[in-house]
Every structure is written in structure tokens, then in C-alpha cells.
């Protein structure tokens, strides 16, 4: 990724609806040249796609928690992912270092829905215990910068 690619990514992060011509003006390239670069960024996995950023609260998913998941015995990350995928409240899951085997990000409509989701998570056959932290407010949330800081 060169400096022009980084500027293209920065423009797409700023506004993914920007046309190739608009991006071209910012990076001093023609629209077809920008398209070729965007296609290459998609092919190489730098860009994973384009999406709308939705406010979860506006859709009724305003309660969230981060849950440390402790598994019975040694479980592969792929198996953990397979067991978590069926739970619609799981919006992200990560393997982590430390005592927990994974961290799970849950979203729910309200505290009662969250409690139900936690109970279903705890009932997954590989889970031995969980430690939950309910989010009170979001202080900072931002997309990754095109250039490492």
C-alpha cells in the first residue's frame, strides 16, 4: 500500500459513498485509476467491503455487554466461533490472552433480553463460566486509521 492508496482508504473511511471521481480529485488521479486501485485493495484484503454504519440503539439494540468466556478444556478458536455464531446477540467475538479463552460482545434490546442472551451463552456446551461487564455509555468509537500511528 503506497501513500496514494492510504489517501484513498482515508477518503473511503471518511465517506464510503464518495464516487471514484470525487476520490480522484482528492488524490489527483482519474476515476478509472481510483477504481483500479480500489479493486486491488479489495482483492488484497485491505478493504473488506463497504457498509452502512447503523446506530444500534435506533434499531432497538441499545443494551450491550462484554463477556469473558472461560471454556472447558482446550477448545480451538474455530470451535468457539461455531458455538457462538447461532446466538444473534453476539455481534463480535475475539480470542484473547489472559485467563479467559474469548471475549464476546453482546447487544440486546434491554436488560431482560441481555440476561436471556447471557443464559443462552452460559448454556453452550463448551462454556464453563463467564464474567460480564455491562456497558453504561460509549466514550469513543472510531474506525481504524489508514496509516498506523
TrEMBL record:
HTH asnC-type domain residues? 1-62
Q: Which UniProt keywords apply?
A: DNA-binding, Transcription, Transcription regulation
- One Pfam family for this entry, by name? HTH_AsnC-type
Task: Name the source's superkingdom.
Answer: Bacteria
From the Swiss-Prot or TrEMBL record, give the protein name.
Lrp/AsnC family transcriptional regulator
Instruction: Name the species this protein comes from.
Output: Actinokineospora soli
